[in-house]
Amino acid sequence: MSVVAVFLAAIFVAPNFVDWNQYRDELTAYAKSFTGRELEIKGDIKFAILPSPILAIKDLRIANSKGPRDADIASLESLEIHLALTPLLTKNIQVTNLKLGNPVINLENTSGSKDNLPFRLNSKNKTTITNNEPVGSPQRPGNNNSFVNNKPVISGFKIQINNFLVENGTINYRNISSGHIETIDKLNGRLRLASLNGPIDAEGTAVVRKIPLSFSVSVGQIVQERTLPINITTNIIPGSVKTSFNGFISNIQENPQIKGIFTVNGSKLDKFLSAIGGTAELPVIFSKPFSANANCKDQRIRISKRDLWQYQQYECNVVFKKTRS
User: What's the predicted TM-score (pTM) here?
Assistant: First the structure.
């Protein structure tokens, strides 16, 4: 019995004494074989099993494809992955915390038909998935991506993420053809994912076009593989403006359409208009409370080669409400 105890202790404690930096080349080579992108790790790599498995990497960069102006599509000052130990014994990878420190993502559209977003997955490493079927069940023809109980499966292990944290993130988008640039910075948020079919909850803060705001997103479970309920709320600091959208996306697999009710209300219309327009202060006559709502329907979504997305059809009836002022 003592021999077994010593053996188990060695298995769990030994990783704490290993210099994992010596495996840097193997780790980056595997990442390239899986994604087709160069992975560079400039900082330290740490891994431990007790008291719970944790992988920590400092200064990580993922190279861009050929063509974009930015050398990296993504960079992280730190990456931490915390796992629950017991579920590993039943081939379940339960990520209790996944934290990105100071991430920067650079999205770029270099031409009307090319962007830097896609990753080339090696066919030998593609995720094997079966939708609500036992592991090992035959896949449907033509489907290289599937899931077990709505969770991705890699090498027989089911994966679940309980807590996804972003600290001080930045997202840059550049369209070379039009010269259009958008930046979201100071992004701090938390995401919780029950399953790939929902529900999903996220909340956080960010600065968009130099406008500070907070956001809350709730995505329900997919209904009959066709309809996805969505609730989005934002609080925009200039003008104390609150916006909300309550609706759903229908026909998500074939011809997705957005339907729902959009509302907005605030205490200072002049502050809000000045912030979103980047203009000087407006006349005092605009310093009034305001509110409006819109019933949006038949907004068909299609992926555009020119931009990341665009609406194919838009119909929205807007009603401005009277205020006491």
Answer: 0.72
